[in-house]
Design brief:
Length: 135
């Protein structure tokens, strides 16, 4: 369960080892692959879920739908300039009090579908945290 302060695309914001009570950032170009590795089927649960368009110091307020629209325009903005669609994310691991943040750069329709599934299942997971489960 030990995690070094830098592992693959993740780097501790505090240069602290171990995932418990830590915050990790991810490089932009690694965001989609990192999300897919963390959530292989795009499904969140109560111990690992994601929030999107979180901005802060690590990115934009762009939504999944805005990235989808950018892709539909051929990755050009309204002025015709080349752009890379970005969506910020925050992975929350409440049981170990760990946050992971970054930007993802969706490139294909399957990336958008994956992000929408992850967003929907994350909302459901968060809504059920702390509620009694069926026996």
């Amino acid at each position: 369960m030990f995690e070094p302060s830098q592992s693959g695309p993740w780097k501790s914001a505090h240069d602290k080892e171990g995932a418990h009570y830590n915050t990790f950032g991810c490089r932009d170009g690694d965001g989609m692959a990192s999300l897919r590795k963390f959530f292989p089927d795009g499904v969140a649960n109560d111990i690992n879920f994601a929030l999107f368009s979180t901005s802060g110091v690590h990115g934009t307020y762009g939504t999944i739908e805005e990235a989808e629209a950018d892709m539909a325009r051929g990755c050009k903005n309204e002025d015709g300039d080349e752009i890379t669609p970005h969506v910020t994310f925050l992975i929350v691991q409440p049981r170990i009090v760990c946050l992971r943040y970054g930007n993802c750069e969706p490139k294909i329709a399957e990336d958008i579908a994956f992000l929408k599934t992850l967003r929907e299942t994350s909302w459901k997971a968060v809504a059920n945290i702390g509620r009694a489960t069926d026996a």
